[in-house]
Amino acid sequence: MNFKKLVKFDFDKFVPYKSARNMCVKGDIWLNANESPFRKQFITISKNLNRYPDPQPKNIIFKYAKYAGIKVDNILISRGIDESIELITKIFCKPFLDKIMYFPPTYDMYRISSEIFNVQSIKVFIKDYNDFDYNIIKKNLKFLKLIYICRPNNPTGDIMPEEVLINILNISCNNSLVIVDEAYIEFCLYKSVINLIEKYPNLIVLRTMSKAFGLAGARCGFSIANSKIIKILKTFIAPYPIPSPVCNIVEKSLRSSYIEFIKKAVLEINNNKNWLFKKLKRIKCIKKVFKTYANYILIKCFHSKHVLKKTNCSGIILRDQSEKLNLENCIRISVGTKLECKKLICQLKKISCKTSSII
């Protein structure tokens, strides 16, 4: 039996998301998934695993609301940001009619979720935020339901200016929801737009515990919006999104002592990033180093395939971005510990010396 025929769309043409863990390579230094290089051990206490967990754990919501400076009725807990993206698309978009808009190169799950639910996507490449063409939004407003903005953007690390975002919110206020993905916002917390959710009812902010909080394996995220949107999301989300052991871990990670640990870790990562940024600009095999507000740095190489091959062989795993729009020969580097950053620079210097004749 040809099971592909049962799939509702052309299976062979569908381009799935390629996660960092799909890379069939072995390494000692993993700088490809934007994970935190710092971790703490958690002892979980889950006595009643024969019982279902709380659908929306009140203690976690209360503590995250306190951490983020928002009200408890502005929060929905989900299995990471990915579930929120899927949920929002599923709820608000009619198949074969409505549209989403996103700004590549960016996080692929906006496109993938829209394709799964047969929702058309509008791709808008932004060359310069100062020349943003708002007419693209205006002329698509009739069927434009969702506008996704990754902020800071993955993989470029840049950040849409708040005034541009506010203009988009105003233009779309009666037609579209604007979803701001703040997965990496802890690395530039002063840039968050979470304070705008009450003023702009069409704004949804997505947050995660995967990056700065170092809980990528726990799979916990948050949708933050006005209470009416949260009520709608709660109506349609799967009944028990967060397992009891994960609830226990997340609750502990929101205690004041752990938040202080996170603040120190973020400071150290940002310091390492600044050091790494300066060093990368001096490497001869690198053509450009992109300014970044996140915990990763995008570089453009003269010959990225060669660089990736050599770093992989040395046990340093980076993320190829060459297949994304306008990112030919680009590589994304997650910022690790200072020792990991030093080992990377050492390896890149060796590569530069051996390849200088072909650059």
Write the layout of secondary structure elements.
Blueprint: E1 29-30, H1 58-68, E2 75-78, H2 80-92, E3 99-102, H3 109-116, E4 120-123, H4 135-138, E5 144-150, H5 162-171, E6 177-181, E7 203-208, E8 221-224, H6 227-236, H7 244-253, H8 256-280, E9 286-289, E10 296-301, H9 304-313, E11 316-317, E12 319-320, E13 330-334, H10 338-355
Model description:
With 359 residues, this protein is an alpha/beta fold. It has two domains: 8-37 and 258-353, Aspartate Aminotransferase, domain 1, CATH 3.90.1150.10; 58-254, Type I PLP-dependent aspartate aminotransferase-like (Major domain) (Aspartate Aminotransferase, domain 2). Helices cover 33% and strands 15% of the residues. The protein contains ten helices and 13 strands. It has helices at 58-68, 80-92, 109-116, 135-138, 162-171, 227-236, 244-253, 256-280, 304-313, 338-355; strands spanning 29-30, 75-78, 99-102, 120-123, 144-150, 177-181, 203-208, 221-224, 286-289, 296-301, 316-317, 319-320, 330-334. It has a seven-stranded mixed β-sheet with strand order 2-8-7-6-5-3-4, with helices on one face. The protein has a four-stranded antiparallel β-sheet with strand order 9-10-13-12. Helix 5 (162-171) links the parallel strand 5 (144-150) and strand 6. Helix 8 packs parallel to helix 10 (338-355). It is globular. The mean pLDDT is 93.
